[in-house]
Amino acid sequence: xxxxxxxxxxxxxxxxxDERRAALAAGTxxxxxxLESREQRFVYGHTDSVTCLAxxxxxxxxxxxQVRKPGAKVAEVNLWSGSSFKVCMxxxxxxxxxxxxxxxxxxxxxxxxxxxxxxxLALWATAQDGWYNxxxxxRVPLVMSSAYKGGGVHGVLAAPGGLDKASRFVTWGAAxxxxxxxDRFAPSKLxxxxxGFGSSGAPRIIVAVAWQSRERLVAGG
Length: 221
Fold this sequence. Notes:
It is a single chain. This protein is mainly β. It contains 1 helix and 18 strands. The strands form 5 sheets. The protein has a 4-stranded antiparallel beta sheet with strand order 1-2-3-4, with no helix packed on it. It has a 4-stranded antiparallel beta sheet with strand order 5-6-7-8, with no helix packed on it. A 4-stranded antiparallel beta sheet has the order 9-10-11-12. A hairpin with a 4-residue loop joins strand 9 (98-104) and strand 10 (109-114).
């Protein structure tokens, strides 16, 4: 079995696991490509098209979201091993297509966002050990919020910084940026605030962001 091509509309369609391997959204599969040998391995388990990907090298875990299959109540987010490529857990909560995923807090927590009216955001425990590993077994969100009610949300990106600092990340999409922060030891204390763009106003769509430092973000629209 060999995949030719990938789902270009996925956000993102490709993530690097390390310098030698990349994971691609390809239909209902996540294809992992060895860049030198071109060998492919696959993550199975999705029931409809994969819409977004995320990976944490700190925990050695990948995550992938999908379209809500017709007739299904929820759209799954699958958590999988970056070495065996086996699905180790599925989070079944969002009642609309998954539109964005991102690991924060050194991979201890996964952020997921769906395409429902409120663009519901959920935080999930994903750590391999410690308290967050214990909470992972509950398979329920640590906290939920509305990511943005005024339009689509296209991505999640963790701010740089160690585990000794508060968890900080940004979400972006249609005419907005939103900055989030939560307490590592009390993740339910999640706070979000809109970013400002000055007198010229926000771009119609934010398409990419990058942190220059923990306090400085560059956005392109």
